[in-house]
Amino acid sequence: MTEARLWQLDAHEIVARTRTGDLSAEQAVGAAIERMEAVNPALNAVVQSCADQAMDRARALDKARADGAEPGPLFGVPVTIKVNVDQTGFATTNGVSALKDMIAPDDAPVVRNLQDAGAVVIGRTNTPEFSFRADTDNPLHGRTHNPWGRHISPGGSSGGAGAAVMAGIGALAHGNDIGGSLRFPAAANGAVTVKPGLGRVPAWNPSQKAERGMLAQSMSVQGLITRSAADLHLSMPSLIAADPRDPFHVPLPWRGETPEGPVRVAFTKATYGYDLHPEVDAALDTARDALADAGYQVEEIETPDAFDAGRTGYRALMGEVWALMKPDVEAYGSQTVRDIFEVYFAEFPPYHGTELLQMMAKRSHYAREWSLFLDRYPLVLSPFLPQPFFKPDRDTEGAEGVHEVLGAAVWSYAMNYMGLPAASVPARLALLPGGPQPINVQITARRWREDMAVDAAAAIEARIGRMCTHLWPLMG
């Protein structure tokens, strides 16, 4: 492969070459930066370049390797970091103009863990204001575009991350997820991700002035968006390394025990009143058949009520947002995001006072129901969204827009509320009137078994291939 095509390598391919010395960190990182400089102006996925620091770090890694240092598990892998997480010397803007000068004094655990493993940060990716939309646009950094075309939103809130990694800007993209912010961009861009369960990845921002609300703490997780399931297996063991700054991190290994016999998968097409689009229906069938071909025992069966759990959880989150976050949105947010939040509060009427405490307590009820179900069926294959991904700014179109964008996504935020891991993987390329777009499905796993969700994603990927092979020819 020539130097000009090194940006196409997945992380596991980069590591295979850098660890043998066939490829230097400087070459791998330099190719990713060249790709970023070529395609990012049209995408606006990366809003802060780290190119100079990245090249210095890559050369330092190569020198240390030459001096006898053992290369880390992610040696020379170019990565991006979302702008709502602290990286020393860079502004943690969270897409908010008022935070443009809030320079991080230290690295967040995820940044430290990636760099300790030998990864190199090449840029920081865009997020909507307050990281609280399923689309990515803000007055400070502007709009991020989907590499598949401007007929599709890039997703959010890790929209910059999803667009960047699928466009070839780095092999790994950091993101986070409180209601779907890893899985929305994965679905929009045809990428692969796993939303880790509660406590799996250490989290904290050294720049923060106060602790987040309890639901924000228990629903939000850090993760990675990749082009292949294999890259999740490669990188997540480094991301989950313990950090004492997160006192609730659970120090479990990435891989759990190998289950005996075929893994049972509960298969459902439940959309809870929303119409299931034929392309999503076909993607679910393809994913089901792929898992069956791979030896999984797939059974179509009714699961515990994801709608009740999801809606209750998001209404509780809106109650916390109303109390703790709404004043900042009103003070520092654009008119667009203030209007969107008003519709959020109408779509998900916030719980307040005693009722909020009762609904927060009910989280254990839902988690117990699902725990019992997942004891029999370790995996659940379901829709992510009932329809193909929406257009940019759909959530600015009042109640109907928010109802389509977030209201329909109960399979997403239900898993955040219960703290369960959930992977997203493309299972179909739909040829729609507006243009081609990927269709992702979701795989929920029992607690602490992100690895099983990723294994299933890999089985689906083995049948349908990776979406980047279709995307890159379209990009030129």
Model description:
Strands 1-3-2-4-6-5-10-11-9-7-8 form an 11-stranded mixed β-sheet, sandwiched between helices. Helix 2 runs antiparallel to helix 3, helix 5 packs parallel to helix 6 and helix 12 packs across helix 14. It is an alpha/beta fold. Helix content is 43%, strand content 14%. It contains 17 helices and 11 strands. The protein has one domain: Alpha-Beta Complex (Amidase signature (AS) enzymes), CATH 3.90.1300.
Q: Tell me about the biggest sheet?
A: 11 strands, mixed
**What gyration radius follows from the Cα positions, in whole Å?**
21 Å
The CATH topology label is: Amidase signature (AS) enzymes
Indicate the proportion of strand residues.
5-15%
CATH superfamily: Amidase signature (AS) domain
Low-confidence segments: none
Q: Secondary-structure element order, as H and E?
A: HHEHEHEHEHEHEHEHEHHHHEHHEEHH
Pfam family, one: Amidase
Protein name: Amidase
Domain Amidase: 28-452
Keywords: Hydrolase
